[in-house]
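name: query_chain
kind: protein
chains: 1
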Amino acid sequence: MNETAISSRDNPIFKRLKKLMESARARRDAQMSVLDGEHLLIAYLDAGGQPHTLARAASFDALRFAQLAARSPQAKVIVLPDALFAELAPVATPTGMLAEAAWLAPPEIANTPLVVVLEDIQDPGNLGSMLRTAAAAGATLAVLSRGCHDAWSPKALRGGQGAQFVLPMRRDVELAAWLNAFSGQSIALALGEANDFYAQDYVGATALVVGNEGSGLTAAVTLNASRCAQIPMPGRVESLNASAALAVAMFEVVRQRRSGRGVAA
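structure:
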């Protein structure tokens, strides 16, 4: 492994990594992101990706880094002083290693559709967590509206913990038109609805639709969904966090499909 030492902010590699960390437009134009930490790098490698650049802080375990670099034979390998590395880190306590990596585009899955449809999810941690939930539940596709946060931002990647590498995604989608064209049922999760979410049958093709953390779903999206339903909440709080609501809903679908019967007894 040949490491290149970088000590200046004017270095073109440092400047490129910095821009990818900070700019959604730069990520979109390059179709690349920066992965923070070895866990994300390992998930990326396991998904078949090969990073373009590997970077470590001078204090990061050189042997551990060499083992990861051995799985990335084509990558440019650099080492930075800890203080300079910290300027790239997306968190207060840097992990000590980063990878510059091209976006992956997993093929859409041919199983009975289980789609998560997200409208204007603004918090990157929420978005990453929702993609992680969808991937864990075996979703076949994630459909994101134009108003969603960048799914490939450092914070969304951290929340997703590798979900973006294995979950097929369509981004910048006009949701009302997509829902109108979807051949299965689409269930919009919303408060104040008479339909009990648990009383529906999800064994067939299903899309679960979740809206913005504050304002919920727009009228255009709810009108184009097959129906709206509410997750029963017997406790004394107004609502669930959007990410928590999706997790509850996704795994009710998993439960029904595992049992082979639609509606809970």
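note: Residues 242-259 form the longest helix (18 residues).
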